[in-house]
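Reply to thread "Modeling small-molecule complexes from scratch"

Following up on the discussion above, here's a worked example others can learn from. I took a protein sequence and the SMILES for zinc ion and predicted the complex. Inputs first:
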Amino acid sequence: MREARELLDVPTQGRESTRKRLVIEVMVKSDRQSQLSRRTGLSQALVSTTVQDLAKDGIVEIDAPGGGRSRGKVRLSRMRGVAVGVDLGFNHISVAARPVDQPHDRIAVRRQSPGANIGFRRLLPDVLRLIGEAVEETGQGMADVVSAGLSVPRMVDPRTGKFTTPVLPPWEPEDQPAAELAAELGVPVVMDNDANLGALAEQTYTSEEAVEHVVYVKASTGVGIGIVVGSNLVRGRRGMAGEIGHLTVDPNGEMCLCGGRGCLDTLVGAESLLAKVKQSQRGGARDVPTTLSALVLKARDGDAVCTRVLNDAGRVLGFALAQLCNLINPHRIVIGGELAEARSMVLDTCRQELARFALSGAIAPAADFELRASTLSPYAEAQGALILGLRCRSSR
Ligand SMILES: [Zn+2]
């Protein structure tokens, strides 16, 4: 069987670079040629001749024209090779591994606690073990891993691929998780912010069109958003774009980890939501949840306080997102992270506040705006990391 590594290891220059770029994009997602053209920025004519070339060499196959959703789609021929995506959260590690010739929902996944809160060095052996388990589940081995991407809950400077300073806890300025993982895996590893990668995965895997404007909200320990406009991820000059968690929503509010005051994080971050539940139950003998997941579970079981806290979180989030709708008019806002597990308890109030504060034309008609929970959760970020890892091979 052909090895994906042979295709990805060719030098990136001239005609080969176009072939490599397209092969990688087909590994990311099999698609129609028009969509491949939009995703790569290559002209339709160039995509067409290159795809025919690749088909002649047995590298890709083109689904027969005719009826059905897969009509005219370009697929990768059978070959060995596994792409890996790793998501390091504050309280979890998630890993997704997928044979490059399989569709995006055929991933092997692993997830466990704790996460980055205990420090990256102590986490690395667990990360490697989980990757090993997931890769083994695909029926291939660690020697077949051809790419890897890493998602982190911090800002990443797009020019250097390292943490943007100042580096907030629990990370240290000298931490270089991508480089350490690359040394262990023997493939280049690129790193990006978790919300950015959630947005990338949602836009790639759940949008029909390659140019939809998608905002992904990662709401867990803190809140961050990833913004994809057209086919571009908006990172900003220093990777600070989308830090909505530090948008001031109460000028006289509490101090935040970032040094600001009244940030969205101080109202809807996990710590704040847990503190609100604790406050209402002070002096009582009832169990108080200590994690956001536990809080959501309690609300689902009908606990009135936990339900109200989540309703309120949806309201504040909706207020902040309404400003965003007026600024960039997204086609879709996808809520991910642990808060998304609360579903309608957060989404309903969020929707109400969008209706109160956003321009009506920015959130209607229904065909042009959607607010929903992530369907890739809890692996959206790991899936995005997997995409990023593959794409970085087109320049290395
Ligand atoms: Zn802040």
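What I'd highlight from this example: DSSP finds 13 helices and 15 strands in the chain. The radius of gyration is 22 Å. Questions welcome below.
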